[in-house]
Amino acid sequence: MIRAEEFILPLKNQGYDWYAGVPCSFLTPLINYVISASSLNYVSAANEGDAIAIAAGASIGGKKSVALMQNSGLGNAISPLTSLIHTFKIPVLVICTHRGEPGLQDEPQHELMGNITKELFDCIGISYESFPRATKEINSTLANISQSIEEKHESYSLIMQKGSVANFNLSNQLPNKKQNTFYHGDENIDVTTLTRNQVLQSIVKTTQQTNTVVIATTGYTGRELYSIADLPNYFYMVGSMGCASSLGLGLALSRPDLKVLVIDGDGAALMRLGNLATIGACNPPNFSHLLLDNEAHDSTGGQATVSKDTQFDGIAVACGYSNVWRSNKLEVLHDFLTEPSHRGARFMHMKIQTGVPKGLPRPTIAPSDVLVRLKSHIG
User: Fold this and answer.
1) How would residue 301 be classed by pLDDT, with cut points 50, 70 and 90?
2) Residue 308 covered by a domain
3) What was the pLDDT predicted at 181?
């Protein structure tokens, strides 16, 4: 058994000071220590997949990041691990507990995942080792982390057994940055002639390339933005559906010098709706979240989502976004994009029509090259 600081402090000396995670009783000492340390940053994610994407966003921002989770939530993280982390080559350190470890008594719900945890990491191509349980093991573990992430640019995982870290009491809680919300709402946005293309054209004309990062959700949104303008400050999600907002949150928190605009869709937002609460709790003033709602999974055949009667703007208000808009007017979108915000995160709900221009191309630039270009652009 080691003390939390024996591992976290030398890890910090290697540059790892950003954490996102979902608690597990095995992780309690580590999480308590990180939250209690003023020099470290911790985001409490709504689920394990969001934790991976938040850590990935911080990594894009130039911060070495750690995702913490119980292995029962590893299935929740598979999508961003395989279609975000792997596809864009964004290295993160994953500390995953081993509930249901074979041969040890545990709750019945952990049995199957406990048996296949290591095989899952093998299957998705992430190297791993056991979390150190003795002080003498820490240096070799840190060297292996450095070799994988910093030299090979590959993610790495530490699998933690029960009782690896001595108890550490929580000395303070995470600050809650929610404020009263300024709401700007049109009464009826359900009847619309607005197209996604019109909205994206307005964004291209309005956003400043020098200090704004635009993250477009997977599906037609990224493809259509690419067809209008392919700029170095654009990031096209090509998988990990629903993770655009958590990726953007990690980037916004780690780089307060940048403005981050996430262009989301109704289907994607519904898939990971819990992240809106995380955004509201963190409330970064450099984060803007635009949700384009056509009530359909447009890129998979136009099947209806359940968004027809979903008041996304009301959800954003309830989650604590500082500024919330509801409108289908491009002039209101312009205000949303350009008005300075010193209070906190911003959200806008717009209804659009289904459909895309004929012959819509797919990006020809590789996802990993999109990332290299973006990181070079933001420094």
Assistant:
1) confident
2) yes
3) 80
